[in-house]
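Page header: ASSEMBLY MODEL / two components / 865 residues total.
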Amino acid sequence: MFFSKALFKQSMKANWVKWLSVTLATCVMLAIVIIVLGSLSINNIRDSLKNVFAQADQESVLKENAIDSYDAYLSSVEFENGVVQLTNMWEISLGEGQPTIKTAIVGTYEQNKALYINENGVQPEGEALNEIQWASANQVSEQLLGVAGAMLGNVTQEDLSQLMYILISTYQYDAEGFNSSGAVLYSSINNQYFNYVYNVAYQQSIAVEGQTDKEAEQVALEAQALAKKGVSAYTNSGLNPFTFNIDSFKADAQTYINDMIYLNVYSRFQITDDSTDEQKQEAEQYAFASKVISNTALSTYELWLEQGATVEQAKINATGSISDQIDDEKVVEALQELGNMDIYGLIIGSIFYRIAGLLLPMVYVIMVANGLLAGQVDSGSMAYVLSTPTKRRTVSTTQMLYLLVSLLAMFALVTAVSVVSIWIVGGNSFAINFGEILLFNLGAFLTMFAFAGFCFMCSAIFNRTKYSLSIGGGISIFMLVCTILGLFGSNVVPSAMRIEQMNFFNYLSLISLFDTTKILAGGLNFLIGFGVLAVVGVITFVIGTFVFDRKDLPL
Amino acid sequence: MEKEGLSQAEEVIRVENLTKDYGRGRGVFDISFSVRKGETFGFVGTNGSGKTTTIRNIMGFIKPQKGKAFVFGKDAWENSCEIKKDVSYIPGEIAFPELRDGTTFLKNQAELLGLENMDYANYLIKKLQLDPSANLKRMSKGMKQKTAIVAALMSNKELLILDEPTTGLDPLMRETFIELIFEQKAKGKTILMSSQMFDELERTCDRVALIYNGRIVDIADINELKNSTLKAFKIEFNNKNDYLKFKKLTYKIVRDQRQYNQVTIEIDDSKINRLFKTLLNYDVKFIAEIKFNLENHFKNVLKKQLEGGK
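Prediction written out in full:
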């Protein structure tokens, strides 16, 4: 009804050259962008940056493990020394008129237990028992430090409490052995100690690292083996417990850790006698590198301790990775973001589909929309159409239809080219899959639909090309420029290059409603913007049609 | 109502108190006239006097602020599309759609008009010696005008509205065009034509309206003008005495130029002999008849108007 075939043909004849050149140029540009991106590994830099951080993390773990093992080894040596010292002092009174250490341990524990039974009317169990044990251990170690601190050397209350706790456990577990003296007690204590180490390591592993039971068990067993190694190293050394110096065990600890690293690496690389030389060499190299890293960490750790740093501080300093060494958190974030940046999404989505690929269709829309109404009214050629029995409504709807059909055909071709290009560079295995590229095309079309509506409205409102072009075209180009400027303030640009304030420009542009990052992120959030663009297009087209119906035409 | 019914029957165009004010004295003000069926009506006036504005109102391209234009009894603004079924139009400004050549344009135009038979179009092309295969943009002004004439006349419609249709035509083509107008008149077409050329309007039109500053100053009936028995003569005397003596006589003096001893008098054909007898007694340097044509008629009208304004 409101369609004139002759006018449609006339518009086609007048604009096909523009249509063809814009469509071809856009298609060629898009094909080049996708194919070039697909064949070059532009993500190399990103990947190596990612590697740096992964390696740093790995290194950090290796160093931490080395230092933890080192500490565990040395503390088991110290523990053993403590046990020997204590058993030697077993029968010594804690002062005039005071009980011996042994009776003090048993007495305090039994007293605390009796108090508990008195209060609660049941035997202590589980957590309650553990609490009583620790409380007793603390009390006794305090007493002991007061009396025999000098004799025990520079042992801390914490270490002493731990020792007492083990002794109380031993007593609880084997009261008879505890009351006898010497060798029987000694092995009983060690057994309790190894249980203690196992339990602590198991609990930590489960709680802190969130590992499975089996993994935690493995960790606990390793810790236990480490403790046994330390204890036997002490025993084998045959040193006088009172002239004991931990420094003489440090070299042992390092050697032991190095051996452990080799063992771990060989088992991880599954090296057996049947393995090829190449495999062995690879494992050897890896183990060597790990050894160097561990030893560096240990030396640094020792160095920091000598400098008077606390154990925690020394550990942090020695295990620090690249991200710890860079002080400014923003710089670390920026680097990490750079590592996580999606270059394909940025170039194809944010730069091509929202800027570069829109430019030529926008120029087409501005020129053609103007030429379809305002241009013909301004020149006067519209008189030839309107002096025939053709309604103004027919003119406006036919011209609108031409604009939309030509735009649709343009984007159909662009879509075909994009799909074929992606298929050439690897289909769905490419960084941007078919679904995403189809949504990009749909979004770009809807954006142009909105601009077409706006330019058409201006063309319908103004009788002069200069006004139609400067308002319709001017605002459209202004919005495209705002999107270019806004890009530098948007999240697709890594924070190192981002200027937050420039994000303001995104609020001035209709193109912001076409959000490629939302499409890449998955979900349906992008649909709201698509809907608004469609509504803007429809409303402006309708306004244009109605205005053209009732205005004065200088024909 | 009775009057309206009557007018609708014989008046193809009726303009009633039409006003379109563009500000600063531009536009048309309170224009009224009508064109009867079969009549050729002319519009004359200087640039910007309001000819085109009036025509745009009649074509329904612009909405009047006051008054109305009727074409075939229908409101030209409200029924703009409907009246085009019987109207052909040559716009004052010749600008063609962006098409390759004249042939494409004329075919496209025929399609818009629903015209299938191109015989008359071909007749017009031949008559105007137009080469329609020429590139539309490279056409000379005259060729463009010819193309526009063909596009308008080929559909053979009842009413022709022609806004300065002879602009750019050479004198020979202008003659051909006037012939074409006579052909249209012979077919009984109603024609509204604007021009700045008095002579072509005088030759083709039945009535001509003078528009000045957006108002119709006068509507002249060409037949009355042609058949007028009134003549004007310009007489110059060799000496002042004769000049002064002549002025005392009863002849109607329309112009008096003292410095040349010259007078222009208006006189009816029947009194010519008496004039010549009188002049025998005077020393006349020369005597010339001033043609009583449309141009002079309007000049006089305007002069009176301006003098009256003072």
